[in-house]
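Chapter summary example: a protein plus S-adenosylmethionine.
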Amino acid sequence: MKKNKKENIIFENVLIENFAAEAKCISRIEDKVIFIEGPVAPGDYADLRVMKSKKSFMEAVAFNIRPTSSYRTQTICSHFGTCGGCKWQHIDYKTQLDFKTKQVVDALERIAKVNLPEIKPIFPSSETFYYRNKLEYTFSQNRWLTQAQIDSGESFSRNALGFHIPKRYDKILDIDHCYLQPDPSNAIRLALRDFTAANNLDYYEQVRQEKGALRNLVIRTASTGDLMVVVQFAYCKPEDIDLVMNFLAEKFPEITSLNYVINTKGNDTFFDLEIVNVKGLPYIIEEMEDLKFRVGPKSFFQTNSKQAYELYKITREYADIQANDFVYDLYTGTGTIANFVARQAKKVIGLEYVEMAVEDAKVNSQINNITNTEFYAGDMRKLLSNEFVSQHGRPDIVITDPPRAGMDEPVVRTLLEAAPKRIVYVSCNPATQARDLALLDEKYVVTAVQPVDMFPQTHHVENVVRLDLR
Ligand SMILES: C[S@@+](CC[C@H](N)C(=O)[O-])C[C@H]1O[C@@H](n2cnc3c(N)ncnc32)[C@H](O)[C@@H]1O
């Protein structure tokens, strides 16, 4: 052990012992657990710079990595290690899947402490790259350079169009090629970056809130082939907006929905702003089986369309809906699951916080001639009360897909009171799901568990649990 100039403790040549949560790894030094950030894998050796030291654990960043792990695979992206997007790209896909399954098993065994059926191995993604249907890039005058780029004499002055560096909100990594979204995502980004630079259009600087013309770029590639582009401008002359939009329209005739928005607020969100549609339709269409889903610039849709279909099929199978069943779909978003299962059910009610998503959900029922759905907007904690259940009817089946924080306890209590014969719990966070399962154990038995991989090259895992009334 030694200390560097900034007085950080450094441990040299430490064996990386295991994977840990949140894409970290773990080792043990002097009986203390040490959580390690950086592109390491169990079996590697690395020097560790301690960033935090508490009584029972430490947090460290790995450097001088000796890549001797047998779990490693060749990385394909030149931005790996700097970009926060694919933190597990150096881990072979089978190991990624094994660890995700283990994360689910650990959370359910350690936190839920309920009787469990055999947990199925994770459902893998058929595509491990180019699987995302949406990416969001940021324009910046404040380009991030790696040490290698600085050493090779690259200039800081070139603008960037890419992703935020993890923990460095002021720096943007200029992306040459991103392996997450299919063509023509890369071509559009690079063409727009080069065109705006050639025409001396400056970029908005978010942290310093410096005036600039271009701010953000959203590209959505639907499984139907539809293609949406939304360019976010900040302080841009109308003739320059026309210049950029005409360039995109001519260069990429395959864009089916070309839009822009002017945003001079302190953040990049545009939910409260008017979107101007300059070419094509103001939405794209996603398809699943014979259903169509209309996705506008402000609409949520699961970002891995193919795996979303697999997730929904598992959810539908676990729900095992009969023709007379009344279903609640909690945290329905744009009503995708509600509409996906509606034809099996007598009636489906979808509940969701975001009013605009509820409007999308209603449209998605209409365009598919689904007439047995109803959607309500509100905070689940208040909306899903015993009164709501008395007023609208007791559900036979509940499907719930909450955000990472899981369900609020009053929501779980209302479910226990309503006592549907079956609950299907879809979760993107096995820890909070396990916490909620512990409460549901009062009346429910877990009868099936199926993890699903929606995000290869990352530590994120989705999990579907079926619960039957005791
Ligand atoms: C994981 S997403 C589920 C989306 C949807 N089931 C789907 O597959 O597209 C969680 C949803 O819960 C909504 N949400 C988050 N907190 C909420 C709350 N307190 N009350 C109601 N809805 C909430 C979010 O807006 C989001 O649409």
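Key point: DSSP finds eleven helices and 23 strands in the chain.
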